[in-house]
Amino acid sequence: MKVGTPGFQGARLKQVRIALGLTQESLALMLGYKDAQSISAMENGKDSPSPEVMQRILSLTRHPMHFFVTPLPEGIDESEALFRSMRSLDEIAKGRAEVNLSWLAEYAQYLSKFVDFPKLNIPDLSAIPQDPMLITDDHIRLAADRLRSHWGLHRGPLPNLINLLESNGFIIHGEPFESHKWDAISFWDKATNTPFILLNLDKPSYFRLRYNLLHELFHLLFHVHADRGMKEVKAYERELERQAHLFAGEFALPHDSFPADLFADNLDALRIVKSKWKMSIAAMLHRLEDLGILDKSKSSKMWANLKRRWREGEPLDDSPLEEPTIINSTVKMLKEHNVITPHSLLSDSVFPQDTQERFARMGEEFWLSDVPALKIHKFY
């Protein structure tokens, strides 16, 4: 009689395999199997690894045993993730991004046992149709105006966007993912009604990051009900992207305030106001096109000049990036208030140290420290 691993969750093996960028065939070879059928059977819950194979899995993946025997949490479905420009994205890169996003949400669920994260704070947007194909440009302008008003932003330049979103109930993480095919991915944790954004920092720029955040904000608020089957239709995808671009421009560069700062319709004028409005020259150029301030001839000349003058990057693009703080500050407070020690975080959570280091943005020295823990919670 074959001896398996009691409580083994095949979905966990699939998660960690995808996160490592492995196919079933490659994992099978690493574990000593002849083909992928054994891996498929384990991932689908039809088989369980022997104690010997389980030890190989633990050694290879560097994940703790309780990760593999803990069922997936409710409300987190990475298949519902929203990507920016995913048509050229290969399945391995797409899968890695989706799994990391779901792990971020699961880690936040775990931390929420000890703290209350900021509540979701968005205005009533029920006037905007749920069907993306019914959303008009007027709807998008209305959404941008309502959101600005609700968050007390008035009509000037936007503040630190990551801090703004985190303070209003969004949870954000960013890191390099060794892929230039995607900029950001987002989804809703249905169990906690929390929106999550994962940023790819492979090609980081302060201004690009801010634009990507606005893009994901629109997808989260208005494209949740998008037809996923239609995402493969170019015209449908182009319209979703066009809507997100228009929203980013309207929200960051309001039609009734941004143009008043331009003393001329040329690149030097845009370069001068870039530091104030905190958007790229390219984004501001798109905005002037949307507003009809530039005709086609003038716009074409400015784009050509932009590519010629700043082929390697725009001025100020090396500005320090905005950084997420909510997970980092939560983990720090848990330790400082003696709620739970770093050692207990590692033993209690299903995630290994390197994953928690990434999400919490805390180095190895933090996890090696320890203090006695008290059993208290919710100090936010």
TrEMBL record:
HTH cro/C1-type domain location: 13-68
One Pfam family name is: Peptidase_M78
InterPro entries, A to Z: Cro/C1-type_HTH, IrrE_HExxH, Lambda_DNA-bd_dom_sf, Rad_response_metalloprotease
Q: What GO MF annotations does this protein's record show?
A: DNA binding
Give the record's family classification: Belongs to the short-chain fatty acyl-CoA assimilation regulator (ScfR) family.
Q: What is this protein called?
A: Helix-turn-helix domain-containing protein
Q: What is the scientific name of the source organism?
A: Deinococcus arboris
